[in-house]
Amino acid sequence: QVQLVESGGGLVQAGGSLRLSCAASGNIFRINAMGWYRQAPGKQRELVAAISSGGSTNYADSAKGRFTISRDNAKNTVYLQMNSLKPEDTAVYYCNAVDYSGPYEYDYWGRGTQVTVSS
C-alpha cells in the first residue's frame, strides 16, 4: 500500500505562485512514477504533470512554461511549483503514484488540495 498526502494549496491572486507537496509513505519502493492531476467543478480530472523514477517529465500544454514538477527521492516527496497562476488553474489538485513494476498496474491517490486563483 501507498499513502499520499498533499499540501500547499490555497488562495492566490492571478500571477502569483504556489508550491504543492505530496509526501508518500508505505511501499514507496514500488512507485515508478508520480504526478499531479486536477479537477475543476463540472470537469473531468486531467493530468497536469508527471515524473518518472528516472526523472523524465511530462506536462499538460496548459502547464508548460509555468509549472515544474520535481521529485525528492530521499524525502519521498514530489513537488509542483506553479508560477504565473491563472484563474483557470483553479481546481482540486490530486497527487498520483503509479506502480507498474509487476504484472498489474496500481494507482494511488491523495485526498486532494484546493487551489483557487482569483482575478
List keywords for this structure.
single chain, 119 residues, mainly beta, 4-stranded antiparallel sheet, 11 strands, globular
In short:
With 119 residues, the protein is mostly beta strands. It has strands at residues 2-7, 10-13, 18-26, 33-39, 46-52, 57-59, 67-72, 77-82, 91-99, 106-109, 113-118. It is built from no helices and 11 strands.
The shape, in one word, is globular
The chain-level structural class is: mainly beta
Helix percentage: under 10%
The tally of beta strands, per DSSP, is: 11
- Helical segment tally? 0
Q: Helix and strand string, N-terminal first?
A: EEEEEEEEEEE
Task: Tell me the strand percentage band.
Answer: over 45%
Q: What's the main sheet like?
A: 7 strands, mixed
Cα distance spanning the termini: 40 Å
Mean pLDDT across residues: 95
Rounded to an integer in angstroms, the radius of gyration calculated over CA atoms is 14 Å
List the uncertain runs: none
